[in-house]
Amino acid sequence: MDVIVAALPLVIVAVLLVGLLWPATRAMPIAWIAALAVGYIWWNNPPDYLAGSSFVGVMTALEILWIVFGALVLLYTLMQAGAFDRINKGFTAVSDDRRVQIVLIAFFLATFIEGAAGFGTPAAVVAPLMLALGFPALAAVIAALIGHIIAVTYGAVGTPIIVGIQDPLMIYEDQIVNDGGMSVVEYSHEVAAWAATYHALTGFLMPLFAVGMVVYFFSPPGERSLKPALSVWPLCLFSGFAFAIPYWISAWFLTAEFPALIGAMVGGAITVSLLQRGYLLPDDEWHFPPREQWADHWVGAIEPGSEEANGPVPNGGEQMSLLKAWSPYIVLIVLLVVTRVVDPISETITDADLGAEFAVAGLGEFTIGVVIAWNEMFGYDLAADIAWLNAPGFWLLLSAILAIGIFGMSGQQVKAAWAEAAQKLVSPFIALVFVIAMVQVMIQSGGAPGAPEVGSMIEILAIATADATGPLYPALAALIGALAAAMVGSNTVSNITFGGFQFTAAHELDLPSQIVVGTQAVGGAIGNLVAIHNIVAALATVGLVGQEGRVIRLNLIPLFYYAVVVGIWALLFVYVMPDVLPSVFDVY
């Protein structure tokens, strides 16, 4: 009965979001109320404790939104300045072959946007670009969704790891220290590195998958074949490895902010350079069939290649150099590297003592400064903080401000960029606040005075799942993360919801938890392939709302591939590789 009641909030999310197709802005407040009811009635949580748990979630949501806002401001600043248009033209000038354009735009450009902005932005930005080039709207959405998946674990400059794994696992700090003698930050770094390992070993085929899906399903029905995709396999595999190698190295030797950005920039630069020199180009060009042969569901309200699809050309976009167009993101990477690597700077911008401290009777202790913190919420052992200066959001905004001078932008352009970013935050703000508040109520439920000794709602569900699946659990762990991401449309929220779940299940089965939680970070990424919110957003940008079911059905193919292969790797890493390579795995 404990398991059934604990699952109630998640069941409500599944029914409302997936079953009834309610928007998250309506469904998540109801799910949060359900979590409060379960916490109060079944877990004996006092009302003020439930309020404190909810506020932990609210502050986590605000930290995410701070990052997303900075990412969107920088993105829309480049779009207003014409820099983004120049970047896109730099890719498309390489070849008119649609397969090559899929690799360069739907893979490299989409993974870069995911690393910089995340939260559904790549498909919503890249799909219209491909539509403007003459791609069928449905093909553009499919290619963009598949192409960016390998980068999602490190989207929005590492948010799914930093906010999704690191912060929630602070509740298990003592156990993590006792298990491996490492801090939660070090532990989350290893989780991120293992996630990159799964991705690199599996996701290097995503360029080939994206090309294959488009050339097969967007040819005339009687002429469908994978031969056009197989004829560009050298380009696809080279692109996959060119991305995956620097991506994997960044995950292991830098931090979670960098893998997607560095993988896309380094891999894209190498691939474009070779293509421009005539290497890896296919012998013949592949194009879509004549327009009159297209199926009705391929195209929506916006005609591919039309003036409406292309939109206005920003001033200066054509003449701008590629280096200048990319320069704000180069500045961003430099700022992030310096603030993470130079100890005096990193210590200063994370120093919770640099600020004013005060207490309010009955509410708790507050710090306002370099870090905004709320401790001892309502007298309980509940705390949350926002390191707003250290968070990528601040450095994203700083890069956007510097971009104003770099591009010589007008006040109207700047105003438009910031207004567009603010407008895009309204729905995510409502959804994120309530979904993360719900998750924190579930996570914190076992720590309230008088709570039953069975543990929190999340711990109960994790132990029950581990007991039911036994040794096969690692093979299924990624699917758990994918399910959550599919429902809420966010790798970060999936990690917040099930990161502790996976950690507890791994301990219940005496498995290496870093490797298991790493599959969660991957699962939260691949669930975006069928996340209804991301699909709706992408379809809306190409005038094709109403084809959500068709997109989900097609994207189940790469989702199945990814989940099965990651599951197999997880079983090998947990049960086989420690015996084969003991020197590598003995620490786990």
TrEMBL record:
<feature type="transmembrane region" description="Helical">
    <location>
        <begin position="230"/>
        <end position="249"/>
    </location>
</feature>
<feature type="transmembrane region" description="Helical">
    <location>
        <begin position="429"/>
        <end position="451"/>
    </location>
</feature>
<dbReference type="GO" id="GO:0005886">
    <property type="term" value="C:plasma membrane"/>
</dbReference>
<feature type="transmembrane region" description="Helical">
    <location>
        <begin position="125"/>
        <end position="145"/>
    </location>
</feature>
<dbReference type="GO" id="GO:0015129">
    <property type="term" value="F:lactate transmembrane transporter activity"/>
</dbReference>
<feature type="transmembrane region" description="Helical">
    <location>
        <begin position="6"/>
        <end position="22"/>
    </location>
</feature>
<feature type="transmembrane region" description="Helical">
    <location>
        <begin position="354"/>
        <end position="374"/>
    </location>
</feature>
<feature type="transmembrane region" description="Helical">
    <location>
        <begin position="55"/>
        <end position="79"/>
    </location>
</feature>
<feature type="transmembrane region" description="Helical">
    <location>
        <begin position="191"/>
        <end position="218"/>
    </location>
</feature>
<feature type="transmembrane region" description="Helical">
    <location>
        <begin position="559"/>
        <end position="578"/>
    </location>
</feature>
<feature type="transmembrane region" description="Helical">
    <location>
        <begin position="100"/>
        <end position="119"/>
    </location>
</feature>
<keyword id="KW-0812">Transmembrane</keyword>
<keyword id="KW-0472">Membrane</keyword>
<keyword id="KW-0813">Transport</keyword>
<keyword id="KW-1003">Cell membrane</keyword>
<feature type="transmembrane region" description="Helical">
    <location>
        <begin position="386"/>
        <end position="408"/>
    </location>
</feature>
<feature type="transmembrane region" description="Helical">
    <location>
        <begin position="27"/>
        <end position="43"/>
    </location>
</feature>
<dbReference type="InterPro" id="IPR003804">
    <property type="entry name" value="Lactate_perm"/>
</dbReference>
<dbReference type="GO" id="GO:0015295">
    <property type="term" value="F:solute:proton symporter activity"/>
</dbReference>
<keyword id="KW-1133">Transmembrane helix</keyword>
<protein>
    <submittedName>
        <fullName>L-lactate permease</fullName>
    </submittedName>
</protein>
<feature type="transmembrane region" description="Helical">
    <location>
        <begin position="325"/>
        <end position="342"/>
    </location>
</feature>
<dbReference type="Pfam" id="PF02652">
    <property type="entry name" value="Lactate_perm"/>
</dbReference>
